Amino acid sequence: MKKYVNGKELVKRILEGEEDFREIALPKYTDLTTFVPELNEYLRKKDFAGIDFSNSELIGIVAPEIILNRASLNYASLDEASLDEASLNYASLDEASLNYASLDEANIWCAKTLEKICLAESKGISFFQISGIGSRNDITTFILVPYKIEPDNSFEERIRVDVGCYNSRLPEFLRQVGSTHDKNNFSGEYLSAVEYAKNYFKSRGLN
After folding, report:
1. Domains by residue range for the chain, with CATH
2. At what angle do helices 36-45 and 7-15 cross, to 10 degrees?
3. How far apart, in Å, are the Cα atoms of 157 and each of 142, 145, 146, 171, 172?
4. pTM (predicted TM-score)
């Protein structure tokens, strides 16, 4: 059962040191913009494991530039959220739903885990997803880090790949596929998906 809170109450409880917000529900389109500077000042000073928003309903939340480092957002509903320039270092977003979310310059590629994340129609992020392939018969997610963020890395080095609980950059993923599947059917499926994803990014001028 969800625990309903409003934005002002949520901010107050965070600033008081609370970290467990599992299964809360905010009113849709709660705007925390004016609270973000104070929250970020507090969160920068606090060395902690991260706020837990697992299984929470945060639909349409507006929190540009919010710091969510090491936060747990597993199974959270963040559809239509506005999280431009959010910091997601080492955050967990397994099976989180960010459909139609705005993620311009949010560093989702620095998240700890993105297993089965939903990103349909999300804006500000270059991604490609394919389901039902490989040894896990799972969702494979490719996220392209913008060139301006990693100008010294090659196109392939800027592609993060997530399959189940596994994630790496593309060159390491290709090495892993080669050593694990060695030209079997799964290898072919993964390699085809890789080429499709690369062509998808290139066709949109994202490389």
Report:
1. 1-124 (2.160.20.80), 126-207 (no CATH)
2. 20
3. 12, 9, 11, 6, 9
4. 0.89
Q: Are 84 and 66 in contact (CB under 8 A)?
A: no
Contacts of 21 (CB under 8 A, 6+ apart): 5, 10, 13, 51, 52, 53, 56
Residues 6+ away with beta carbon under 8 Å from 22: 52, 53, 54, 55, 56
φ and ψ at 158, to 5 degrees? -90, 5
CA–CA gap between residue 57 and residue 47 (Å, rounded): 25
Mind listing the pLDDT tens digit for each residue in 148-204?
Answer: 999 999 999 999 999 988 999 999 999 999 888 777 778 889 999 999 999 999 998
Q: Residue 50: CB partners within 8 Å, gap ≥ 6?
A: 19, 68, 69, 70, 71, 72, 90, 91
Strands (E), the chain: 3-4, 24-25, 126-133, 138-144, 159-163, 166-169
Contacts 24+ apart (CB under 8 A), 177-180: 180/135
Q: Rounded to 5 degrees, what are φ and ψ at 140?
A: -110, 125
φ/ψ of residue 44, rounded to 5: -65, -35
Residue with tokens 């994340």: 117
